[in-house]
Design brief:
The chain is of the alpha+beta class and 234 residues long. It has helices at residues 22-31, 55-66, 89-96, 98-118, 138-152, 178-189, 199-204; strands at 13-16, 38-41, 76-86, 122-126, 131-135, 159-171, 174-176, 195-198, 211-219, 226-233.
Length: 234
């Protein structure tokens, strides 16, 4: 092979393992006889691309063939989740009847959608008598929450709002993860007309001018430990 490999006239990639071992030295010696060769010593011991630490080997092959590695897409992002809930929705449904309450819900949903868009959030889904939205900025999420609360009052509705910031998992058009679960639990503890947030949110918006009142520590169902919650002063 040593006499033949110098005749290779096409772009060539040689991958070898072994570092400074005799096997690695032999591989480098052979590769250096190929004109314009690109050689990479990848970590690990297995030479098969489907055994052991295959990532660096497959990345090197893909980059050699295509000219670049694709950006790795992450299905987890940092976001602020916002949950709303209509206070006493069952009682209002009983009082108004199905038709009138459904009409009110349509107006409610449109108002909330418009406000979320205005504050550059993403309305993920309706929760029946509320919404789940996400924001890439906690300050805008808090201000949006206050606007939502104020916008629905002329409809004769009170909502409770809960917010938490953390890493969420993207699932097609939905979101999941512990941060979403915590946000829902925080919303469930909010009083009528209250915007309640986790300590994480208050830390992230420090210096923004948004004021909070300490609501003490609370246990959140299904979440380890206790959580310090704060009410937005507005």
């Amino acid at each position: 092979m040593r006499a033949v490999v110098p005749l290779i006239q096409v772009p060539t990639l040689v991958l070898h393992r072994g570092g400074d071992s005799p096997a690695g030295a032999d591989a480098r010696s052979l590769a250096e006889r190929i004109p314009g060769v690109r050689q990479i010593d990848v970590p690990g011991e297995d030479y098969l691309f489907f055994i052991g630490d295959t990532g660096p080997m497959l990345d090197a092959i893909e980059e050699f063939l295509t000219g670049a590695l694709p950006a790795h897409r992450s299905d987890r992002v940092l976001a602020t989740v916002l949950f709303t809930d209509i206070v006493s929705s069952t009682e209002q449904l009983t009082e108004m009847g199905d038709r009138r309450f459904k009409e009110l819900l349509v107006t409610h949903d449109e108002l909330l959608r418009s406000e979320v868009e205005r504050f550059r959030g993403r309305l993920v889904r309706s929760t029946g008598d509320g919404v789940l939205a996400t924001f890439d900025g906690p300050g805008r999420a808090v201000r949006c929450a206050c606007a939502l609360r104020d916008e629905v009052r002329p409809l004769g509705l009170d909502i409770r709002v809960g917010l938490h910031s953390g890493e969420i998992e993207l699932r097609d058009d939905d979101v999941a993860g512990m941060a979403v679960h915590i946000g829902a639990r925080v919303a469930a503890l909010a009083a009528p007309g209250e915007v309640l947030v986790s300590r994480t949110v208050t830390d992230l918006v420090a210096g923004s001018g948004i004021e909070f009142e300490d609501r003490g520590e609370h246990g959140l169902k299904g979440v380890p430990g206790t959580w310090n919650l704060f009410s937005v002063v507005a």
